[in-house]
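Shipment paperwork, digital attachment
Item: protein structure file
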Amino acid sequence: MVLPLYLAMTATEISAAPSPTFPCAYMACHFSPYGAGLAGIPDVLPEKAMLILNDRMACAGHSPDLVAGQLADAVSRLSCESVLLDFQRPPEPESVAMVTTILKKLPCPAAVTEGFAQPLDCPVFLSPAPLHIPSEQHIAPWRGRDIWLEAALCQEEVQITEKGMTHHPVFPTQQLEGGFYEEALRCCYRTQITGDSINFTLFDTPESLEKKLELAAELGVSRAVGLWQELGTFPTGKSSA
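Attachment content:
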């Protein structure tokens, strides 16, 4: 695989593997519940790691200048290669101001999630394509941007009846094997026919995910980010940096 795959690890996981052989992402800094800045900034990280800031604690009431300064200092002190602003809450004026201020102060590449990306020119972090949608279609609206892609072993249930199609993701996923491989979607599937419907279980395997990431590289995605807990034995790509 030519696409670098950064594996997100907690501080405990990093301390148990202080010299990982794959690109590492620290999971994660967050907004302090007690002050106007950040909590969870690590003391040490592997060389050229990615630093992740999430919004599991809302950024409301926090100082953009203070947060941006703390992140910039951490990036320099820890020799971080990049930052991921993994904000999953819907954009609000305060969070937009926070992201904008952070991007101005960081000395390294930083990606934002799709909800914040449209008016910006920084890298965009895309969620995995729903399994019933081809990767090409999922990535197409962002072609021309620096794209970082979330890598995960996904699962989805699809039901087709005379009234149409319904689909929903399955979480937590099961470790499924066998079935059939669908080249256009680069995932596996199983089928079940009932009296009035055809039911498909779409699912990723490590092998299908690797093919999906190979295609993503061809489509211009520059890196992928996944969970070490899920993909720790996955064949990781090597950065050209």
